[in-house]
Amino acid sequence: MWSRKRLDISWRDLAYGAVQCWLPADAAAADRRARESWSADGEALACLSVRSGFDLLLASLRLPAGSEVLVSAVTIPDMVEIIAAHGLRAVPVDLTPATMAPRLDMVRRAITPASRAILAAHLFGGRIDLAPLADAAQEYGLLLIEDCAQAYCGPGFHGHAQADVSMFSFGPIKTATALGGAILRVRDAELRQAMATRQAAYASQSRWALLRRIAKYAGLKGLSAPAPFALLVACCQLAGLDSDRLLNSSVRGFAQGELLDQLRRRPSAALLALLERRLRRFDGERLEARIAASRAIVDALANLAEFPGFAAGNHCHWVLPIRVDEPRRLIAELRRAGFDATQGQSLCVVSPPPGRPELDPRVARDTMAGSVFLPCYPEMPSEAASRLIEVLAAFCRPPTRVSTPTAGELVAT
Q1: Which range marks the domain in which residue 116 is found?
Q2: Rounded CA separation 2/226 (Å)
Q3: pTM of the model
Q4: Any domain includes 151
Q5: CB contact set of 373 (below 8 Å; sequence gap of 6+)
Q6: 108: domain CATH number?
Q7: Which of 22, 94, 180, 256 has the highest CB neighbour count under 10 A?
Q8: Computed from CA positions of residues 17, 21, 22, 24, in that sequence, does the dihedral angle turn out positive or negative?
Q9: For the chain, how many structural domains are there in total?
């Protein structure tokens, strides 16, 4: 069985990270090298995760209690929790399915005197056109934050020029993963310094915590090959476990519980060293192969199915969702054919604040309810990819209707 996702990290990278956990290191030097490997403009801030950086940002901004942050209606639940933890309110902005970009009309409808910032997410590997949102942010005096956690595509893109803050993730299932770590590009020097000063007061991530994480994901990488993965799914079925839920929980960046306590750590020198290595040795060939694999599926099914977000520009196809009427039935069909798929339990649709039902993101909810995330990566051979396309085409193709003679035709014959 082909697993839903392959970790974008080599065995050599894992070994390098493990070795770094045992070596003495200068954390300040490791931090400097990681930031310089990202950009020489001095605007980068290395954090434990995007969640950690976002928490740092809100803490440093010190927005008045009750202030509102407009957010892309589809995001991860932790981002909403972090906003609430700072006494702020998350206000969803419904999306356009073709690009998964926030709708500008809904942005303007959502803005109130309490609005202070817009958090726009680039979803599924596509890069939305941020210019209209940037114009609206400037018009209303709002901070523009772009969440690029799913949109990293190598050294050519460090964030939109009009964004105040751009956040990039290198968590376990991200492109060029370092099994953790994030780079935030913060344009305002005073704000960036405030965030760096606050982070410097945090305790460092334990190198042993990173070593345990490396061991865990080395195991998951080994299990993602077809035969071991099929055995894993079979064992879950025998034990009465939900393999989909188990797999989603196994790649969570942070355990359930006291989220802020887990976020408020400095990245260890070992993590920064691994992050620097991944940035400097970005595998552009694998990215191009992943893009080609996704495009082959989309092109083959262009007249049969919808692919949310596919129309966004500069698409790196971090994941490939397909929208269907019966997602659970499709998942079952794919598993019978040897392909693992999921509906993406790590994402949520943000609910509107009390008293503002007009902001209910109905389009985003409908899109996510019908989306299935497909296995698609360079390690899948062409024979398996062709079989996947056949299963999808058979599922999505309208049933052939057998014409029934009318009463008049029966009389005529």
Answers
A1: 11-200
A2: 5
A3: 0.93
A4: yes
A5: 4, 319, 320, 321, 341, 342, 343, 344
A6: 3.40.640.10
A7: 180
A8: positive
A9: 1
